[in-house]
Amino acid sequence: MSHALADPRLSQRAGLFPESVIREMTRHALAHDAVNLAQGFPDWNPPAEVVAAAKEALDGPFNQYAITWGAPALRKAIAEKMRWFNGVEVDPDQEIVVTCGATEAMMAIMLAIVNPGDEVIVFEPFYENYGPDATLSGASLRFVPLHPSRGFRFDPEELKAAFSAKTKAIIVNTPANPAGTVFTREELQLIGDLCRQHKAFLVTDEIYEHILYDGRKHVAPIGLPGLREHVIMVSGASKTYSMTGWRVAWVVAPPAVTAAIRRTHDFLTVGAPHPLQMGVARALALPRGYYDKLASEYQAKREFLVGTLQKAGFRASRPEGAYYVMADFSALRPRAGMDDREFALWLVKDVGLAGVPASSFFSRKELGRDHVRFHFAKSMPTLEAAAARLAKLA
Description:
By secondary structure, the chain is of the alpha/beta class. It contains twelve helices and 13 strands. It has helices at residues 21-31, 48-59, 72-86, 101-113, 130-137, 156-162, 185-198, 255-269, 274-283, 289-312, 340-351, 380-390; strands at residues 35-36, 96-99, 119-124, 140-145, 167-173, 201-205, 231-236, 249-252, 315-316, 324-328, 353-354, 356-357, 371-375. The strands form three sheets. It has a seven-stranded mixed β-sheet, with helices on both faces. A four-stranded antiparallel β-sheet has the order 9-10-13-12. Helix 3 (72-86) packs parallel to helix 9 (274-283), helix 4 (101-113) runs parallel beside helix 5 and helix 10 packs parallel to helix 12 (380-390).
C-alpha cells in the first residue's frame, strides 16, 4: 500500500510507510488532554538503584562509545540472566549484540538474514513495526491468524501451509502484543520443528518475557530441543524495568548469525548509549523477587482495566501476558457503520481516552474494524482516571 508524500523528490520507499498509528494516537491524547492508554509506556520511574547506576556511569569513564556490540559488563550480565532465567549458556563475546531498543534489534536482524524475495511469516494481529521491517529488508510477509474464537491461538494446519521453499524466517512475539497470547511449549516446539524442516530462522521477540499472568511461565524457544541453531532471540530492558526511553535491548544468536547482525547494527546506530548500558547491567542484577512483584502488580492492573472496560460496554478478554487488552466496541458505536479509526478518534476527543484502532495490527484491515487496543502500564490513579471517563459510556 502506498502513502502519498508531498514532495516528489522523496523516495518511493518512504511512501510505502504509514505513519505509526500508535504514536499518532499519543499526539491526539496530548492535543485533547486525554488519558493515554494507546502507547504502552509506564508513568513511573525505573528502580531507584538502576537510575543511580546510570547517573554514576555519567560521572565515570562511560561517556564515550562502548564496544559496538555492547559494553562487556552488560553482555556478561545478559549471559548470566540467560543462564538462570532461560536455562541456556551463552557466550557473551560471540553470541550477544546490544542494540538501541528491540525495534533496532529487529531491523538489524532482518537486514542480516533476508534477501529480496524471501518470505517471513508473521502471526496476526501483529506489532505494527514488523511490516516496515519487511519493507526495508526486501522481504514479503506471509500472515497466519491468531483466531480470537480460539483465545488468539493459531491453527497448526494453517501454519504448516504458510511455510515454503521461500520461507526465510518466522517472527514469534511471546507474550504477544497486541493479542496477549503466551505461546505454549508445545506450540513453540511445533514452530521450531517447522523451521528446522524448512531451514528457516525462528526470530523471537520476547520483550514482555516477565509480564505473564495466572501462574504462566515463559518458554524461550532458544532452550528447546534442537532449536539453538535456528533461534534468533530479542529481549530488552524497556518493559521489564519501566525504561522505554532508555532504548537498550539485545539479540542472542549463534556466533555466525551474531557476526552478521553486528555488522548491520554497526551501520544502523553504532551502539546503544554507554551510560545507560551500565544502568541496565545493574537492572539485570536485581533480586529475582523483583520479577514476581512486577507480574503481580500488572495482574492487578489487568483485572482493573478489563473490569472497567466490560462495565462500560466493551467486550474484553483477559490477556495471558504483556499489558494490552483488545476490546470489541460493537455495542458502543455512537453512529452506525463507524470503524475502529473513527471510533478511536471519537473516544479521544469526546470521552477523553486514547486507544489504538486495531486495524493497524492486521494485514486485512476489516479484521480489526470492531476493536481498539488499550494498555494498562499505568499507575492506579491514571487507570482510575480512565475509568472515570469510561463511566460516561455506561
